[in-house]
Amino acid sequence: MFLQINLYRPPSKFRTMKKDYDEKVVNLVRSGSRLHRYFRGRWWHPVKKEHQQNNCLVVFFFMLFVGALVFAGWINESIFSVDSYPKSILTSRKTRRPEYPLKCNQNQTQCPGNYPTAYNPISRGGSSAPTCPDYFRWIQEDLRPWRETGITREMVEKGRRTAHFRVLIVSGKVYVESYRKSLQTRDTFTLWGILQLVRWYPGRLPDLELLFDCDDRPVVQERDFRGSNAGPPPLFRYCGDDWSLDIVLPDWSFWGWAETNIKPWQMVLKDIKEGNKRTKWKDRVPYAYWRGNPFVSPTRGSLMTCNVSDNNDWNTRLYVQDWVQQSRQGYNETNLEDQCTHRYKIYVEGWAWSVSEKYIIACNSPTLYIKSSFYDFLVRGMLPLKNYWPIDDNEKCKSVKFAVEWGNNHTDKAEEIGEAGSKFIHEDLKMEYVYDYMFHLLNEYAKLLKFNVTIPKGAVEICSETLACPTNGVWRKFMVDSMVTSPTDTSPCTLHPYDPTFLETFLEKKGNLTRQVEMWEKEYWEKHDKKQ
């Protein structure tokens, strides 16, 4: 009987009985009865000795019965509290948000139209949304070239020459006009990410229009848009550099990189977090580790000369990643969570920035970050000696060797750098913040548009179904795994006001810390050479 009460929640027809019973219990508690005095720590009137055993059994079964009702949710346990009874008779139960999973049918060119067009946010754990991480400050800086003039239709069309597609958001719906195919499925998963943003914050994005270039290197050179030729195209892509004006948006791999079997970011992040627990940092292999394709850029090729050999040991363990071979073997050596085994991880750019950056820094080991000409949207919020260790691109081997020597002789500090970098990735680069970055960037961009957004004849509406349903295999799996099935119940983080002086101070601090490392390195090698 009691087991049934514990496991069974009463149907609606018994709720009236429940209410009546609750009221009787409350009245009993309020009434100063002996039972009430018992719960308040006062003993009952003495009973005759021959009846003590029967009374104990009665009390025992009564308490067991009441406990069963409390567990089943019929009675709020607070009515028996010494200090707070009775706050509420019935417990409130939070309703679960409805979900809208992928809905495929024979007509996969049509969007279902059943997804919410608005949402009611609840702030993240407080009365106001949290402040965005500092790397969000670069949003306004990326849009600075158009801050005074705004963005005209003519400016946008200048980017048509290299763009892969045009994206429009009109009345909460997404439209795309495609121009050329990207490498692998970068374009598809970039569009998928934008669609998930719209599902994450339905009804919150204004009408807008943008052009996107899926290639690696930035193309909008600042020097080409001065004087009479001012008005650069606001072209979006995955990375930028100090000489270009391309607008940086999170890359496609946050929703999965199917061609290399790298899962969506929220899944990878959990896997790496578990991988970090396998081996304590001080028990890891005391060398610098890198695995990748060395043939995509000269700087990677030169890094391979730093590998351990019969003549030199630069404190490195470097491995060539053959993606073709791995695809044949089922990617059994590419699990990112299995690569957090060395005390130090090396980051080196590819043809431009590298997708591997976030996976490397997340590993709880100090990242030896080889100086790069390119940046993505997140690295601009990181500091040397706090989140990573800077490596001289011109003297890679000597710079890496010194970094490992320094870390192995200052293990507490080195471990602290690794943990801070990993914390930055795991906390400030959660998928919620990826969507927040996209949300704020597109909102700020839309404020600058000086023309009415209209759907061109060549554009078609897209949604999760039109992208995912025609696919199969790992491409479909990663889309389903990364799909937003319900609007968020939180508000976006609060964007910092535009403050150029903060960015100037940050860059100055970054430069000073890098020079500090360079000075230590120079002193180390001067002493080393004198001993030779």
Structural description of this entry:
The chain is α/β, with parallel strands linked by helices and 532 residues long. The protein has 17 helices and 13 strands. The strands form three sheets. Strands 6-4-3-1-2-13 form a six-stranded mixed beta sheet. A five-stranded parallel beta sheet has the order 8-7-9-10-12. A two-stranded antiparallel ribbon has the order 5-11. A hairpin with a 2-residue loop joins strand 1 (165-170) and strand 2. Helix 12 (396-409) crosses helix 13 (411-428).
Helices and strands in order:
Elements: H1 2-7, H2 15-30, H3 34-39, H4 52-72, H5 138-142, H6 153-157, E1 165-170, E2 173-178, H7 186-200, E3 208-212, E4 235-237, E5 240-241, E6 247-248, H8 265-276, E7 285-292, H9 298-303, E8 316-320, H10 323-329, E9 342-347, H11 356-361, E10 367-370, E11 374-375, E12 389-391, H12 396-409, H13 411-428, H14 431-447, E13 460-462, H15 464-468, H16 473-482, H17 500-531
Parallel strand pairs: 3-4, 4-6, 7-8, 7-9, 9-10, 10-12
Antiparallel strand pairs: 1-2, 1-3, 2-13, 5-11
